Amino acid sequence: DAGVIQSPRHEVTEMGQEVTLRCKPISGHNSLFWYRQTMMRGLELLIYFNNNVPIDDSGMPEDRFSAKMPNASFSTLKIQPSEPRDSAVYFCASSPSSGWAREQYFGPGTRLTVT
Amino acid sequence: GENVEQHPSTLSVQEGDSAVIKCTYSDSASNYFPWYKQELGKRPQLIIDIRSNVGEKKDQRIAVTLNKTAKHFSLHITETQPEDSAVYFCAASMNNAGNMLTFGGGTRLMVKP
Fold first, then answer.
1. Of A47, A65, B28, B73, which has the fewest Cβ atoms less than 10 A away?
2. How close, in Å, is residue A52 to chain B by CA atoms?
3. What angle do CA B48, B81, B46 make, to 5 degrees?
4. Which residues of A touch B53 (CB under 8 A)?
5. CB-nearest partner of A50 from B98, B105, B106
6. What end-to-end distance do the CA atoms of chain A give, in Å?
7. Three-state secondary structure readout of A46-113
8. Is A2 in the B-facing interface, judged by CB distances under 8 Å?
9. Does A103 contact B49 at a Cβ distance shorter than 8 Å?
10. Shortest CB distance from A95 goes to which of B42, B44, B99?
11. In whole angstroms, what is the distance from residue A101 CA to residue B81 CA?
């Protein structure tokens, strides 16, 4: 298994531009999570999906952020318009949601720089 | 919702010494407590976890203890090595849909050779 796949690995963009981050979870995992990590705020949960349905998006900072999961093997996190304070590492993680098996497997992350 | 506090935020130890990181949680319904290790520039990875029906779990040089009454759990690393240097995150979870984890703020552990 290739693990959780994220693309791009690095993204540099100018303020005001649209940014789309992509994630492919591990096959068979029912839950998908988007996190943002910065030195100041640590690891923040932005949104999570269970069976492709958004369950909790209370961590999404504002309307500029949106996430979708059109099928079990793909999710996107979009920022429009981007701002310098959005610069961070964005992780996607997936997890099987049956019984006690709750380990979250993280992808390699996307390092976003907004200038 | 759940709130997880983690201490200390940084910890420096000499190689060979032990390191202890402590976490407290707020929701008594939480019943799963994993620990993740994140090396510099890498992704967080699970190193050990404990469920609420156990008080202690050990895996080689790492161990985790859980006190449900006090709502706190700890990570113990013995005989620390330079490769243990990383950021460690504790987390708590209830048996809810989607397996959402609430993470602590992280502890940066530095092991000096």
1. B28
2. 10
3. 20
4. none
5. B98
6. 36
7. EEEEECCEEEECCCCCCCCEEEEEEECCEEEEEECCCCHHHCEEEEEEEECCCCCCCCCEECCCEEEE
8. no
9. yes
10. B99
11. 30
- Residues 6 or more apart whose CB falls under 8 angstroms from that of B73 comprise B22, B23, B25, B33, B50, B64, B65, B66, B67, B90
Chain B: residue whose CA lies nearest to A4 = B43
Range name among A58-62, A76-80, B16-20, B72-76 with the lowest pLDDT average = A58-62
Closest CA of chain A from B101, distance in Å: 9
> Which residue, among A9, A29, A91, A102, would best test binding to B if mutated, counting the most B CBs under 10 Å from its CB?
A102
Given a contact cutoff of 8 angstroms between Cβ atoms, the answer to whether B38 and B5 are in contact is no
Kindly tell me the number of DSSP H helices and DSSP E strands found in chain B.
0, 11
Task: Report the C-alpha gap between A68 and A51 in whole angstroms.
Answer: 12
Q: Which of A45, A19, A44 is nearest to A32 (CA)?
A: A45
**H/E segment holding residue B3:** none
HSE of A50, CA atoms in CB hemisphere, 13 A:
12
Distance from CA of A3 to the nearest CA of B (A): 12
Q: How much is the average pLDDT of A100-108?
A: 83
Q: Mind listing the pLDDT tens digit for each residue in A33-48?
A: 999 999 888 899 999 9
- Identify any residues that bridge with B49 across adjacent strands, giving them in sequence order: B34
Give the model confidence (pLDDT) of B56-98 as tens digits: 999 999 999 999 999 999 999 999 999 999 999 999 987 665 5
